[in-house]
Design a protein that fits this description.
Oligomer: single chain
Radius of gyration: 15 Å
CATH superfamily of the largest domain: lambda repressor-like DNA-binding domains
Structural class: alpha+beta
Strand content: 5-15%
Shape: globular
CATH topology of the largest domain: 434 Repressor (Amino-terminal Domain)
Low-confidence stretches: none
Distance between the termini: 22 Å
Order of helices and strands: HHHHEEHHHHEE
Number of strands: 4
Mean pLDDT: 86
Number of helices: 8
């Protein structure tokens, strides 16, 4: 997972610089601490999906590519400072419920039980159960393991929510 966290953080740093932002600029825009931004970019922190999404939205990234190295945020095609989904940063309980519903739908469409997905992904069954019900905020390493096990290649944000490809 350390390799995945480093790849994720390095890509965020590139996107931030491409947007002409400093780490303090990004910390201010997101409301996160400078220490959090720095640690995420260096791969020293396994941020929650909400923290990672907040950073990505403020960098104009419309989604993620999944590779052997991990999550790689997609570069923005928008002018610096323009958010791809201004209303995507919705109330946190709604976002958490949406994440869980998307995972559950994908799992069920593949004919997998929670037990089998838990075994395949290495994510504890209780964590998966709670995630699908919107009761926990997963880290990006947990999401990476789940999405890889669900054969997801891309995660895209849309005006209607999250789409798994």
């Amino acid at each position: 997972m350390q390799k995945m966290l480093r790849a994720f953080g390095q890509r965020l740093a590139v996107l931030r610089k491409d947007q002409g932002m400093t780490q303090p600029d990004l910390a201010f825009a997101t409301g996160l601490s400078l220490n959090t931004i720095s640690n995420v970019e260096r791969g020293l922190h396994d941020p929650s999906v909400l923290t990672a999404s907040l950073i990505q939205v403020h960098l104009g990234s419309p989604g993620l590519e999944l590779s052997d190295d991990g999550f790689l945020p997609v570069a923005s095609t928008l002018p610096p400072g323009k958010l791809p989904f201004p209303n995507l940063v919705e109330p946190l309980p709604v976002m958490i419920l949406n994440i869980g519903a998307v995972i559950q739908k994908r799992r069920q469409s593949m004919g997998l039980t929670q037990e089998s997905l838990s075994r395949i992904s290495g994510v504890h069954l209780n964590t998966l159960w709670n995630l699908e019900r919107g009761l926990v905020v997963p880290s990006i390493s947990t999401m990476f393991r789940l999405l890889r096990s669900l054969n997801v290649r891309q995660v895209r944000g849309t005006l209607d929510g999250i789409v798994l490809i």
